[in-house]
């Protein structure tokens, strides 16, 4: 799943290509991706992109009506602002192209394209794609992102949180560290991969209870969190959309490396699986040598 560094890089990438350009057309290939009907999706056509931003792990493409007297075709609506908000979920991605087919993708087709946005010159624009059978990517067209319940319920952006507020957020809950770090209602931006990296670098068990952490541990966790996300964001700044996934995998020293040797102590990296995902930890670095129970494996062995 794209997390704060990747979504920030995608927002910067799209902003550099779409800002000040008109949206010529929007093609919907998968109705499941659409989460709003008012304003109608055709209202985007003829509007100008004013910028692309990030809210937590959401992309926000902001548009304005074409100015009176502009050489561009007039906008089809009088809305002062319309935002196209995209959540990529686990398997969604943005594919920019300068050779988009003028033929709309077939609605309900078996391909990965969910939404196509034609922007700028003919052939320019992007596809919102989603791999796999579980279609969780989502797109909203709204006058204000706060109209979206999931965004209205977001906690503060994780990089905007002070050390004092971070400590207060942890102390207010007696939950596992990993659970709190990835709860978007507490702090927005961190997902499964970077929470693994943060917990390992901070030498904390993902199952440690937040209310039991002393000040020194909270200091360490806060510093590691910021350093991990900022360094990842900076590393991805100049990487095009097509290379972000590979660059993320290269930059992760720990997540997704079950069975390999810990880069710090050399112990074997272990995994805990639950539902349809898993996380990694090092017994020596994080749990005092204790091997955590893997619930999925425990059920299989019964």
TrEMBL record:
Its cofactor is Zn(2+). Residues 2-109 form the Formamidopyrimidine-DNA glycosylase catalytic domain. GO terms for biological process: base-excision repair. GO terms for molecular function: 8-oxo-7,8-dihydroguanine DNA N-glycosylase activity; class I DNA-(apurinic or apyrimidinic site) endonuclease activity; damaged DNA binding; zinc ion binding. It holds the Pfam family zf-FPG_IleRS. Keywords: DNA damage, DNA repair, DNA-binding, Glycosidase, Hydrolase, Lyase, Metal-binding, Multifunctional enzyme, Zinc, Zinc-finger. Residues 253-287 form the FPG-type domain. It comes from the Bacteria. Belongs to the FPG family. PANTHER family: FORMAMIDOPYRIMIDINE-DNA GLYCOSYLASE. This is Putative DNA glycosylase.
């Amino acid at each position: 799943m794209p997390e704060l560094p990747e979504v920030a890089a995608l927002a910067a990438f799209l902003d550099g290509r779409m800002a000040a350009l008109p949206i010529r057309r929007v093609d919907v290939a998968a109705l499941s991706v659409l989460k709003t009907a008012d304003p109608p999706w055709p209202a985007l056509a003829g509007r100008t992109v004013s910028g692309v931003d990030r809210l937590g792990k959401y992309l926000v493409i902001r548009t304005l009506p074409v100015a009176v007297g502009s050489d561009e075709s007039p906008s089809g609506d009088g809305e002062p602002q319309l935002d196209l908000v995209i959540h990529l979920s686990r398997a969604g991605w943005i594919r920019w192209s300068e050779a988009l087919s003028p033929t709309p993708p077939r609605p309900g087709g078996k391909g990965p394209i969910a939404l196509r946005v034609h922007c700028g010159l003919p052939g320019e624009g992007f596809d919102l794609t989603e791999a796999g059978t579980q279609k969780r990517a989502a797109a909203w067209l709204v006058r204000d992102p706060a109209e979206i319940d999931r965004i209205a319920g977001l906690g503060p952006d994780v990089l905007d949180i002070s050390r004092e507020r971070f400590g207060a957020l942890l102390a207010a809950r007696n939950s596992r560290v990993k659970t709190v770090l990835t709860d978007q209602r507490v702090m927005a931006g961190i997902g499964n991969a970077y929470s693994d990296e943060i917990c390992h670098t901070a030498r904390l068990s993902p199952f440690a209870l937040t209310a039991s952490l002393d000040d020194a541990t909270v200091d360490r966790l806060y510093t590691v969190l910021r350093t991990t996300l900022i360094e990842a964001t900076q590393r991805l700044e100049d990487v095009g959309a097509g290379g972000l996934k590979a660059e993320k995998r290269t930059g992760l020293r720990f997540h997704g490396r079950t069975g390999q040797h810990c880069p710090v102590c050399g112990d074997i990296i272990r995994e805990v699986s639950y539902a349809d995902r898993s996380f990694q930890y090092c017994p020596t670095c994080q749990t005092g040598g204790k091997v955590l129970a893997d619930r999925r494996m425990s059920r299989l062995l019964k």
